[in-house]
Amino acid sequence: MTNHDFSTTFTVDQSPETVFAAINNVRGWWSENIKGSTDTLGEAYDYGFRDIHRCKIKVTALVPGKRVAWRVLENHFNFTEDETEWTNTEIFFDISRNGDKTEVRFTHQGLVPEYECYDICRDGWGTYINGSLKSLIATGKGTPNVGEALTGSEQVLVR
Q1: What's the gap between Cα 128 and its chain centre?
Q2: Residue 33, exposed/middle/buried by CB under 10 A (0-12, 13-18, 19+)?
Q3: 119-159 confidence digits (pLDDT tens)
Q4: pTM given for the model
């Protein structure tokens, strides 16, 4: 059976511990509009982008140098018929050594092509994971959302 959950992978020169710390610095790569703790097991935080997207995410696993996992507890999109498409989906960051590199595998389990938001969310995660998070790990500086449209999909949605 083919797995259709959204997933993407990249490698960096930095250590698994550096990668783990960067992933948990969600304000440094995804959005500065995060309320709550993003690096405490069992805690939940809120994300929001204008009136377009908001969600509550619980930190479900923190294994230093190996894995970060989140569960989407609540979700609201203003651009889909089912505003709650992400609700009860899981997000995983799996970290592993690959020779002298560190591999990061991001999976949004439950974000599937059948979802109305899939193309927009794929674009968003691609930008934030393969661009901003990777940059934060490699250079110490990410490009998080600061309230303005960053991805092509976000730019379309704010028009």
Answers
A1: 7
A2: middle
A3: 999 999 999 999 999 999 999 999 998 766 555 655 665 55
A4: 0.91
Rounded CA-CA distance 95/83 in Å is 31
Give the Cα separation of 125 and 43 in Å (integer). Answer: 22
With contact defined as beta carbons under 8 Å apart, do 141 and 131 qualify? no
Residues in the chain: 159
